[in-house]
């Protein structure tokens, strides 16, 4: 169960990065509540807030699980990070090509 929690922590951590980076650059980026749903972009401030929320969830999961000395916990964290990174790369490259 701890590995699953760290896997999700990796996913939340990875998802925080593009939203924070785009928001800090003052650029719009895709968020779950943008219109049209799934293809629209949200303003920079919303992306900073969404990125920070993802960062908080990741930090909470890491604090509660990883700091309890889970063996090989970083592998689960990295796997979750990589899964969402690959998924985002594939999804956003299709959207940007259109």
What is the topology?
Blueprint: H1 2-24, E1 29-30, E2 41-42, H2 44-65, H3 73-97
Antiparallel strand pairs: 1-2
Keywords: Membrane, Transmembrane, Transmembrane helix
Transmembrane segments: 74-92
Tell me what the structure shows:
The chain crosses the membrane at residues 74-92. The chain is mostly helical. The protein has one domain (2-97). It is 71% helix and 4% strand. Strands 1-2 form a two-stranded antiparallel sheet. The chain is elongated and about 45 Å long. The model has no long low-confidence stretch (mean pLDDT 83).
- Main beta sheet: strand number and arrangement? 2 strands, antiparallel
**Range of helix content:** over 70%
Provide a count of the helices: 3
- Give the overall shape: elongated
Give the CA-CA distance, first to last residue. 40 Å
Please state the structural category: mainly alpha
Oligomer: single chain
SSE arrangement, N to C: HEEHH
For the record, the count of structural domains works out to: 1
Average of pLDDT:
83
What is the CA-atom radius of gyration, in angstroms? 14 Å
The largest beta-sheet arranges its strands as 1-2
Transmembrane segments: 74-92
Keywords: Membrane, Transmembrane, Transmembrane helix
Brief summary of the model shown:
Keywords: Membrane, Transmembrane, Transmembrane helix. The protein is 71% helix and 4% strand.
Features:
98 residues, mainly alpha, two-stranded antiparallel ribbon, 2 strands, 71% helix, elongated
